[in-house]
Design brief:
This protein is α+β, with helices and mostly antiparallel strands. The chain has two domains: 2-148, Jelly Rolls, CATH 2.60.120; 153-228, Winged helix-like DNA-binding domain superfamily/Winged helix DNA-binding domain (Arc Repressor Mutant, subunit A, Orthogonal Bundle). The protein is 36% helix and 25% strand. It is built from seven helices and twelve strands. The protein has helices at residues 24-30, 115-124, 126-152, 155-167, 184-191, 195-207, 224-228, and strands at 2-4, 35-40, 45-47, 55-61, 63-69, 75-82, 86-87, 101-104, 108-114, 176-179, 211-213, 217-220. The strands form three sheets. A five-stranded antiparallel β-sheet has the order 1-2-9-4-7. α2 packs across α3 (126-152) and α5 packs across α6 (195-207). The radius of gyration is 18 Å and the shape is globular.
């Protein structure tokens, strides 16, 4: 894990729902040593379940997997996050220890903000506060949609929706995007299905032209028809 002091501005993430621009380097340069940019290697833990919760993270580039493990050792994937996402925000809501583990799924660059600094900035810097509030509202809606999806949709629809969300393929200017290296086991954990079932659906999606493999997994927005079809 290597701290980087001089880093270029992070490109703003454009999501299906419009987000306010947030430039990590400008924020980093504005004041204080209570924030830094840190790089993580693929599969390197950022924090683990039970660690003290003292910082908040913003993803400049890369991807992060959030997981939890129950008392018998069963692991579940809670979310996969990408550029423009915050995580670890429970520390400013009274969370003393981490409720799960955060792991870089590809080489990842993070802006790391100390809890006290984050609290100060939310009160003092309105542009940042607006950006963070918009993100938290959007994430809350996403959690509600995930719960509805889990309760009422078939595993095939859940897989299609998960792939679309991971690819952020609601962008009109990017009708197709390659996903990072995500295993079928991980996808199965995310949608509550078995790996053979996920493999069956992925083969079906490939035959129908919804996905293809060429140096990685590419998602076509036509996959949306699976989600919308009743």
């Amino acid at each position: 894990m290597n701290a980087i002091r001089n880093s270029s501005k992070a490109p703003a993430k454009i999501a299906p729902k419009k987000k306010l621009a947030f430039h990590a380097q400008a924020f980093l340069d504005s004041s204080g040593a209570a924030r830094q940019i840190v790089e993580y290697r693929r599969l390197e833990n950022i924090y683990v379940q039970g660690d003290m919760a003292t910082t908040i993270f913003y993803i400049q580039r890369g991807g992060v997997k959030l997981t939890v493990v129950n008392e018998v050792g069963k692991e579940a994937v809670v979310a996969l996050l990408g550029q423009g996402d915050f995580f670890g925000e429970g520390s400013i809501a009274g969370q003393v220890v981490r409720m799960g583990t955060a792991t870089a799924i590809i080489p990842t660059t993070l802006l790391v903000i100390e809890k006290k600094e984050m609290t100060r900035v939310l009160h003092a810097e309105h542009a940042f506060s607006d950006r963070f509030l918009a993100y938290m509202i959007s994430r809350n809606l996403r959690i509600e949609q995930d719960l509805i999806d889990q309760l009422f949709n078939s595993s095939e629809k859940r897989l299609a929706r998960t792939l679309l969300l991971l690819a952020q393929s609601g962008k009109q200017d990017q009708p197709q995007k390659m996903l990072p290296n995500i295993s079928q086991e991980m996808l199965a954990e995310m949608i509550g299905a078995t790996r053979p079932r996920v493999n069956c659906f992925m083969n079906k999606f490939k035959k129908l032209g919804f996905i293809h493999y060429n140096g990685g997994l590419h998602i076509n927005t036509s996959l949306l028809s699976v989600v919308l079809h009743e």
